[in-house]
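Review box. Two proteins, two foldings.
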Amino acid sequence: MKSETITIQSRFGVVVHNTLLSNDSTKLLILLPGRGYTVDYPLFYYLRRTALHQGYDVLSVQYGFQIANMEMDAAKTPLLVPDVLDTIQPVLGRGYEQVCIAGKSLGTPIAAEVARSLLPRDVALLMLTPIGGALQGLGQLPALAVIGTADALYSSEEVAAYTGHPSIRWHVFDGLNHSLEVPDDWQASLRVLPEIIGVCAAFLR
């Protein structure tokens, strides 16, 4: 396995170094973090390892505002998508046959917008705690949304609205919060982590 650095000049005024782990695969997983949930947090750490085991190349993206230690607000949000596109375009030029984009929270609407820009390429979405109507307007893009019932953004009505959808499905974990953890119980959080990763791994297959 090779490790490469994909460097961009971010619109947040800093140079961002993103990491591509490569198996010389025909499949690529792109990790888009949350506001404070970086690609080094547990979900992404184990998702990356799982994807590599399944033969994916994995591109772990960082945001310029994270590197610059800037506060993120709505006015700066439009800068994120072009930064992400600048990061992934040279990687996509390697001719991947399949692309999956995994977003966490803030990363989910970015993932959706980026995925739409890649059509008609074979692309799928793994949405961890989606926000802001990230699943709307996806058309026939295959997507798995993962959320917990203790997440303040969880809506049983929204989940039910996708029942029977041909390409979008939800997996709901009872009692997990926005970090997909059991509140105030680190041991229970560790116990449920393999199940979460297992659900994601099955989608990647």
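Next protein.
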Amino acid sequence: MTLSSYRFQYRQTEIEAICADRELSTPEIHFANDFYGQASILKRFAGIPEKRPLKAVLEHAPLFSRYMWDQDRDADLALNFSVSEQRGRMISDISGKRSIPIGFGYYYAMELYRQLHAEESTGHRNGSVVFPFKSTHAIKTNFDHQDYAQRLLALPAKFQPVVCCIFWKDFLHGSHIPYQDAGIPVISAGHMFDSNFLLAFVDICKQFKYAISNELGSYVFLSVATGCPFFYLDSSEITRDIPVELSSNYCRNDTDFESVNENSKALFAKPTDVIRPEQQQFVDQILGKDFVQPRDELLRLVRFAERYDRFVPLPNRGIRSRILPLPAYARRKTKKLKTKFVRYLNGRTASLQRKRKSLAKWFGFRDAA
């Protein structure tokens, strides 16, 4: 089985090169903004120089639970760019910071891909791309890949050929080898620190007629968003090697996650030749399609975030203050000075005491009292 019928634009077949581990090189103040190249994609779409950092927090993946990554919550930025209004309200409650919905960065990657590769955007689709349930940068996922390869090869002819798209971390674990040994070609969208990751993912999904996985992940939503019908194919039992320091985040009872997981398993249980309306609606809601911004509006929001970062609105006054230029100022100061500032607010007049919590939220501080 070969890949000769596919025209990949981002070296997806050179898996040893593109999956090799590397350091993150980014101009972003909040480094996680550039996981999977999301900040880079937004800036390229909006026509902003890539060396100019975003002044808002981006979540690096669509999340399905009432959880916000600690690094996102505590970032020294006063604004969140959320996927949707619902997600924005949730992370505003957690972080104490304002959120503006702009949809997930993958939509901007799809539009950028259309601009860069117009001739490839409506190409012929063939076969099935398989996304084995992936590990993360810290957690290893385990199941019988050899058995799963045989289940894929046993699919009816209309789903063939099957091509395995391996996550970079699973390539480093050697999880791709059973697929290669079974004669299934292996490709990848590259490392999570690759600024072209989302473009490579769009390029992959544009070329396949079906997408398959054994468990819920972002690829369910991204493949459908790209017009590629998705369905689940069960594997052997899945286990995860979770470090002790992360166990509290992954062993909680999260009803929101369970609801999304159950809905996805019901909606995508069987193969379909077209994406059904209820499947499309489910995906659009999770990825925040209704909140995707045109280029000019995204550029306006990026500039608003830059002003918001320099001069914080005073509570209940509707004016901007040039007396307290935070959090841009705070990022240049030590934690000790930031703590002193919050204690200063605590110790002044009764009026300031009443405003302390709202001021601390505006300034991006945790409560230091």
